[in-house]
């Protein structure tokens, strides 16, 4: 680089004789040369390229604050940056907008735009969406890595109760943290299955018993198994509530609401059985208890806590509300049209089963969904033709939105696998960098001792860990977690 007073470079022209509007500059980015004119670059004076036009009058200090090297003979500025990204960024001077080429990492492209001081508002909307998606992936990777690091770390300043609380939370919420936690997760899964099976088996008449008043009730053995399962669910919920770091968020969580709905009917029915008879008639108490027992089906949704497949399906359905809405709209229009036509065409037959249009809705629903119970069917020729057209239209209406829903499921499932792999890879890199840092520190200490008194105290060989332009920003520097972003590969 040219320093002050360096005779290898001719003096920079500082008299301003050449107007900045007509100035021609040459930019070499990663070996790719581009020629620009001042009138184009000055459209956006805040950008780095526009600053190059006026930096010559400021001397070499001003020049080298903007570029990596400079050839005064050719007036050529050198930059050690990505040439592919640069080719996209310079479109802003000609077209007023920027498009990312396929294959460029969005995070790297954002960093390149920041280096060239080009505002992100010039990025096209489709590219912004891609960048936003990549940011969300980075945040998810950072969140997963940070959770793992928080579990591994032990804060000596925390009280004994806080440490115990954290251990219980890991034990119940994170089966991958230890072998006993994995055993507890399997037991919880088995209790959910047993409870669901007992609920179904208890409705078989041959396995029920008759009480003193002649009413059928569940077998005492099944009732005992049910009580044991509810006891396990109650203990599990209470321990998780006590150990949760954010109790307000815990109570309002959907899966925890499902847990409460699975437990609450048992205690409410138990209370009504023992105390309700004093407040209302016995028949009303039995009806209320029976209605509450039906609510036990909510516990089957507890399986979603232990099944990544059910969680993926739930997310795919949430992301597919638009497609599901289209499906319901198609079916609603078809049901209304074909039920009205079926009612009109069947009125001429003396033994018609289409008594009214609302009653014909049921026929249209089971026909368009290709179920066809056969309880209502057309008897005239025109009615049969209408039925044939209705179930053909039903097949088409159901098939159209199915493909986007399947795509959402596959995309989310694959994304979760990629995020898990990226999080594990980040942890491996952290361990590798930590080991390299320790080895570099020990080598530098030995070299300092061997060279002491020969080359001065400021000479030491230290290995500096280089990082790429992208890293997970959410991992705080206070803990020295700053690693390369592997998910961009």
From TrEMBL:
Record keyword Secreted present: no
TM ranges: 183-204, 248-270, 324-341, 385-406
Protein's cellular compartments: Cell membrane
Record's GO cellular component terms: voltage-gated potassium channel complex
Similarity comment: family membership: Belongs to the potassium channel family. F (TC 1.A.1.2) subfamily. Kv5.1/KCNF1 sub-subfamily.
InterPro entries: Ion_trans_dom, K_chnl_volt-dep_Kv, K_chnl_volt-dep_Kv5/Kv9, KCNF1-like_BTB_POZ, SKP1/BTB/POZ_sf, T1-type_BTB, VG_K_chnl, Volt_channel_dom_sf
Gene: Kcnf1
Domain Ion transport: 182-416
Organism: Certhia familiaris
CDD domains for the chain: BTB_POZ_Kv5_KCNF1
Subunit text: Heterotetramer with KCNB1 or KCNB2.
GO molecular function: voltage-gated potassium channel activity
Chief location of this protein within or outside the cell: membrane
Protein's name according to its UniProt entry: Voltage-gated potassium channel regulatory subunit KCNF1
Potassium channel tetramerisation-type BTB domain segment(s): 25-126
Described purpose of this protein according to its UniProt entry: Regulatory alpha-subunit of the voltage-gated potassium (Kv) channel which, when coassembled with KCNB1 or KCNB2, can modulate their expression and their gating kinetics by acting on deactivation upon repolarization and inactivation during maintained depolarization. Accelerates inactivation but has relatively little effect on deactivation. Coexpression with KCNB1 or KCNB2 markedly slows inactivation.
